[in-house]
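Predict structure. Chain length: 308.
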Amino acid sequence: MLTRRYFMLATTASVLANPGAAHAATIDTPFGSVALPASPTRIVTLDSAGAIALNHGLVPVGTTALSDISMSPAARELAKNIPLVGQTTYDGQIRYEKILALRPDLIVGMIRSGSDYSAMYRKLSTIAPTILLRAEGAGKLLDVSFQLAVAMGLEPQITEAKNGYEKRCRAMRDRWSPILNRKIFAVVSGRDRQIVVYAPNSWSGRVLSDIGARLPAFTHNAERNGVTLSYEEIGALADVGGILYPALDDEPAPEIADFWNFTGFRDLPAVKAENMLGLKNLWPETYPDALVFLDAMEGLFQHMEDQS
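Prediction complete.
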């Protein structure tokens, strides 16, 4: 329960964290423009902001739960012993008292579309200037990761990462254009005995689109991150030349176990040709994630080229 004492302490903390701080700039958020401290040194990160900070060498004073698959080995080492302030911003699963005790001078985080975070924002902003940015669709997460990094004072590092990613995409478009021009690629997963085919506005769909890969036409106007097919509709993937799927320990992940051995799936041309790629992370949210994804795609393209 948040008490009157909490709000009194929060007001005091917002002054003590960085008394008389100059503000370097403002950043637009769904909750209005927020003035950034000129040189924040005590940053609390929420959701993917933690991985973004750590991947670029910035150690927050507190963070929500981190995902190993979104961090480099060096970032995972830096993450040891960082105090947790909750699990996620989703449904308000954060601990305000813990954040307050850390006396941050900036709070930065990612929030999901489709939910109301105004109450959370009001509570956090009584503690310190708070930047909560929303990605309107998973395909926008890379863009939001750039904005979050800038808010944390990491503009040179994130600009270098973005430029490296874009350079890699251009090189892959040129190197693999014969395959990209001839083949369609599908990213599939499973849910409730249905097949989910990810759309261009999804995590992996964004990265594939950035290298010029084509996704199935029936996904192009999807309002959400993917389109669901029943097992009887699996023929919609008959013209697909390459299939990506979630993997765990080099085996198909449990969510696709139901259809993995389904005859209709095994009879797809891409499956018969073994033009398939299992990935631990089909959901790249940061540039390092996306580069790992592209590394794996190079292997699939090489396999397809060797077959032709």
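Summary: The CA atoms of residues 300 and 306 lie 10 Å apart.
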